[in-house]
Amino acid sequence: MPTMADVARSAGVSVATVSHVLNDTRPVLPHTRRAVLDAVEELGYTPNTLARSLVTSRTRSIGLAVSAISNPYFTEILQGVEAGALEHGYGLLIADPHDDPGHERKVVQLLHERRVDGMIVAPSADPRDLVAYLTRHRVPAVFLDRVVDVPDAEGAPRFDQVCAEGAEPTTALVYHLAGLGHRRIGLVAGRPGLSTTRERITGYRHGLAAAGLPHDERLLVHGDSEAAGGERATARLLSLAVPPTALVTANNAMTIGALRAVRERGLSVPGDLALCCFDDFAWADLFSPRLTAVAQPSRDIGARAVRLLLDRLAEPDRPARTVRLPCSFVHRTSCGCAAQPGRFSGRPEEPMPRPTKGPSRDRRRR
After folding, report:
1. pLDDT class for 242, splitting at 50, 70, 90?
2. Helix residue spans in the chain (DSSP H)
3. Average pLDDT, stretch 106-110?
4. Looking at the predicted structure, is the pLDDT value of residue 1 above 80?
5. What residues contact 247, with CB distance under 8 A and at least 6 apart?
6. Which 8-state DSSP code applies to residue 240?
7. Disulfide-capable partner of 77 in 15, 39, 229, 302 (CB 3.0 to 4.6 Å)?
């Protein structure tokens, strides 16, 4: 197996120069760098990552703690994180906290003990132990998807964070349904305590107010961010004496559950219940009807989290940043709009709809 000394002899440079090129620890002239990299390629040299980490105190690895990895949304985030990490020469160690605060604390400690250089975490609904651990051990970390309001002693954010906009896109879905004439619009919200749940509830209420619709607490139910919970929550709404004529579901798993509940009652979408959902996913265009949705920039969220973490590693004392990325409105037919030729194939994305007035549509079940 070729050594660093072999690379140095082949390139006509010192072992120190080879080390600087491979570890990017000092500027090297372009032609010298090229000679070293050519020698590495020709000899098939593989750096000893363990030995390098002992010298640099860096393992060039990132810990990723994300629940529900099987969820298509988080799968795309993972792909964004992986692509961003590999682009900068970092590997990933992945753990699933299962949205459980106690387990979350354990897996973060486990990743820390594996000497990752930093972590990217989607925090649970109760991240107090997580925050305490990261703060106590001064672990470079970025929160993604869900924001945590934990200011430092000066009132500034303590952690870098990246997520999609949550309130405004939900408001847009309510606007759209109200513009189609719906007066009773329900919301299947996510797990209580999550920032994403709070923001989408806020957007739902803003949408009702902007459309001049009353807020009926009975039309807001929690599906706990899971398919089974979404099914139970939707069943509750459909059992009301005056059920909603339109529904917003706050994530893709709960959308599946809502569709099951509608089917179990022999109802149809959008004939009996118009439906818009937060989270677009790969097969949303294959449902009948095709799902009108808010699409989150999931891969961009993952890639941006990596960049924030690398910036933190380069400048540990820099001020923390919270980055919010815009969503897009994917207009299909589950909302009750008619398909237009050439418009609804693939993932047609449109600007977020604005409030419009429409005729009252207090429909009864067929």
Report:
1. very high
2. 4-11, 15-23, 30-43, 49-56, 72-87, 101-113, 128-136, 167-179, 195-210, 227-238, 252-264, 298-314
3. 94
4. no
5. 185, 186, 187, 188, 234, 237, 258, 273, 274, 275, 276
6. S
7. 302
Token pair recorded at residue 5: 């000394």
C-beta neighbour count of 364 within 10 angstroms = 8
Between CA 96 and CA 93 the distance in angstroms is: 11
Q: Which of 73, 79, 61, 62 minimizes the C-alpha distance to 120?
A: 62
Q: Which amino acid is at 147?
A: V
Residue 84 is encoded by which pair of tokens? 């961003």
CA-nearest of 124, 142, 230 to 186 is: 230
Residue 81 CA to its chain's centroid (Å): 10
**Cis omega before residue 270 (within 30°)?**
yes
The alpha carbon of 357 is separated from its chain's Cα centroid by a whole number of angstroms, namely 33
- Quick: pLDDT tens for 254-298: 999 999 999 999 999 999 999 999 999 877 777 788 999 999 999
Q: Which residue has the higher pLDDT, 118 or 348?
A: 118
Give me the amino acid identity at 50. Answer: L
The three state secondary structure string of 271-325 is: CCCEEEEECCCCCCCCCCCCCEEEECCHHHHHHHHHHHHHHHHHCCCCCCCEEEE
Tell me, what amino acid is at 280?
D
Structural contact between residues 16 and 5, judged by C-beta atoms closer than 8 angstroms: no
DSSP secondary structure, 193-209, as one string: T-HHHHHHHHHHHHHHH
- Which pLDDT value is given to residue 61? 94
* CA count, 13 A, side-chain hemisphere, 102: 0
Q: Tokens 């990752």 label which residue?
A: 116
